[in-house]
């Protein structure tokens, strides 16, 4: 029957560990037993040699070989048997130079030739070996036998039963097996503990399911439309899915890299690294508004999720502009109703000339303002933005001025980006100008083109930006607006750099858009009070045949018509 192989990873690991432990124990016993057997053999041969040397040193034996005959009751037999019984040897055999036995354990063998070659001891050499003879396998030693004059007169052969050596080896095996069983038990216990821990960590998942889970995780992470980045405890990137790579401009194989090495220093790096705490943190990366959440993991790392809120932010700002425009139009509706009532009253009083003058004056002011913007700004989106902002500014009792030097053709590469930049700057300027109470507050806009570069300036009569905040105001988290009804003690009234949760994206987005086109965004003080924001947008104009002379001609014609 084929053995059942466990399906769970922990069971497989346990089986493998038990097999490895058993193999190691068996190998250790084998490696220990082989040297032990060799040591026992060597000890037996040394003992046999010592007995043979002691026997050959007895002068009575050498004298008996020279003076008597080989008989069972001769002095040589009697002396060697005494030595054999005293030492416990298997046999002690004495032979003459012809190889004839003078002593033997079996008396019938006395007088016969030895069964093994005696030439080595008879030639003066000592011999140690494991060999088989008439008494079986034994550890034996042979030494030469000398007379009183030093001449070889025979040899002594001593054997120790090999079964006694094997018995000693077998006697040592129980202790070895006991140690091996203890080692095997400890190894099995450790294997079971590791298997249980592994089962808890893997939640009892079968080994075949792990590969499927990994495939599903990869498909899920790279298929969702939300960016995911995983970090290890040392801040190195473990995983980047496709959406996160797109949002941050990274490579999906950019693993084992430090975060600070691949993300420029700034708020985005601080949020990803956890140096900025909170949920749904906003940051701008590559001109995109991102919502970032960071979740620590049990091993000290973290998983960061990124959501692209650029389109939502732009739509929100367009909605804010539309809402402001609607409010302005509602106010204008009331104003037009008042004007219509005035016209109606003049008509009822039969003052027709005064009614005509009143209508002409009211319509002409608004038309002249819109025509002036359209004549200077040829792009319809930008000019519409300025017209709408002019209505909003009038509702807030702030004058929106378009500088006479404004010249902008209709050949823009990305008019929506320019609308985003200009709309954010005008909104902040209107808030600042309306917030500071003073005579005739205004916001002035200047747009012009130099080659393919668009330059714009927005200045206001607000409280201005302190020098210490002129860089921080362009970072995420800083806002030019305070929450309604709040006054922070650390910020004077009318200040621009108040931190506000969930806000402070507008000016940061302005700078990021400018940097995307290789331009700059900066702020300075306006002479007489207020702030001046200057933005350059290189490569924003598509080359074309329109010239400044044509624009001047249009302006001249319009001036004459007025």
Automatic annotation (TrEMBL):
It is a multi-pass membrane protein. Residues 418-541 form the Histidine kinase domain. It is an enzyme of class 2 (transferase). The chain crosses the membrane at residues 12-37, 174-194. One of its GO terms (molecular function) is protein histidine kinase activity. Keywords: ATP-binding, Cell membrane, Kinase, Membrane, Nucleotide-binding, Phosphoprotein, Transferase, Transmembrane, Transmembrane helix, Two-component regulatory system. It holds the Pfam family SPOB_a. Its EC number is 2.7.13.3. It is found in: Cell membrane. PROSITE patterns: HIS_KIN. It catalyses: ATP + protein L-histidine = ADP + protein N-phospho-L-histidine. Residues 112-133 are annotated as: Disordered. Gene3D superfamilies: 1.10.287.130, Histidine kinase-like ATPase, C-terminal domain, PAS domain. SMART domains: HATPase_c, PAS. Its main location: membrane. The keyword Nucleotide-binding applies. This is histidine kinase.
């Amino acid at each position: 029957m084929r053995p059942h192989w466990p399906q769970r990873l922990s069971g497989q690991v346990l089986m493998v560990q038990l097999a490895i432990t058993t193999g190691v124990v068996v190998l250790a016993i084998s490696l220990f037993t082989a040297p032990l057997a060799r040591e026992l053999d060597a000890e037996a041969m040394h003992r046999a040699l010592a007995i043979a040397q002691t026997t050959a040193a007895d002068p009575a034996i050498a004298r008996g070989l020279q003076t008597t005959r080989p008989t069972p009751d001769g002095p040589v037999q009697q002396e060697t048997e005494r030595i054999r019984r005293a030492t416990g040897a298997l046999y002690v055999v004495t032979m003459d130079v012809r190889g004839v036995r003078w002593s033997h354990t079996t008396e019938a063998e006395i007088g016969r030739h030895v069964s093994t070659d005696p030439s080595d001891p008879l030639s003066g050499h000592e011999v140690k070996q494991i060999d088989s003879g008439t008494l079986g396998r034994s550890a034996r030693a042979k030494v030469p036998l000398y007379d009183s004059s030093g001449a070889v007169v025979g040899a002594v052969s001593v054997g120790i039963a090999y079964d006694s050596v094997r018995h000693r080896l077998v006697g040592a095996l129980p202790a070895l097996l006991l140690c091996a069983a203890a080692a095997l038990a400890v190894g099995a216990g450790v294997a079971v503990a590791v298997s249980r821990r592994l089962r808890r960590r893997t939640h009892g998942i079968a080994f075949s399911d792990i590969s499927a889970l990994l495939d599903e995780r990869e498909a899920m992470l790279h298929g969702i439309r939300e960016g995911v980045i995983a970090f290890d405890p040392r801040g190195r990137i473990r995983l980047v899915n496709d959406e996160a790579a797109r949002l941050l401009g990274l490579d999906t194989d950019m693993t084992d890299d430090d975060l600070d090495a691949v993300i420029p220093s700034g708020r985005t790096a601080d949020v990803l690294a956890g140096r900025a705490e909170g949920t749904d943190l906003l940051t701008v990366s590559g001109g995109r508004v991102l919502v970032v959440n960071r979740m620590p993991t049990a091993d000290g790392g973290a998983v960061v999720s990124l959501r692209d809120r650029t389109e939502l932010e732009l739509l929100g700002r367009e909605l804010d502009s539309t809402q402001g425009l609607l409010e302005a139009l509602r106010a204008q509706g009331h104003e037009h109703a008042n004007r219509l009532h005035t016209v109606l009253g003049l008509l009822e009083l039969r003052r027709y000339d005064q009614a005509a003058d009143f209508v002409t004056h009211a319509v002409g002011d608004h038309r002249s303002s819109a025509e002036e913007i359209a004549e200077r700004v040829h792009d319809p989106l930008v000019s519409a933005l300025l017209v709408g902002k002019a209505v909003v500014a009038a509702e807030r009792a702030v004058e929106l001025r378009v500088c006479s030097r404004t010249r902008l053709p209709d050949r823009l590469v990305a008019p929506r980006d320019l609308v985003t930049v200009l709309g954010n700057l005008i909104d902040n300027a209107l808030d600042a100008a309306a917030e500071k109470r003073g005579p005739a507050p205004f916001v002035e806009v200047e747009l012009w083109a130099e080659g393919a570069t668009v330059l714009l300036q927005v200045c206001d009569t607000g409280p201005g930006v302190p020098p210490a905040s002129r860089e921080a105001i362009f970072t995420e988290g800083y806002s030019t607006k305070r929450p309604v009804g709040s006054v922070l003690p650390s910020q004077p009234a009318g200040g621009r750099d108040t931190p506000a949760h969930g806000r402070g994206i507008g000016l940061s987005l302005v700078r990021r858009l400018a940097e995307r086109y290789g331009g700059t965004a900066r702020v300075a003080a306006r002479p007489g009070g207020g702030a001046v924001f200057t933005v350059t947008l290189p490569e924003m104009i598509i080359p074309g045949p329109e010239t400044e002379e044509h624009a001047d001609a249009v302006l001249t014609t319009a001036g004459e018509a007025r």
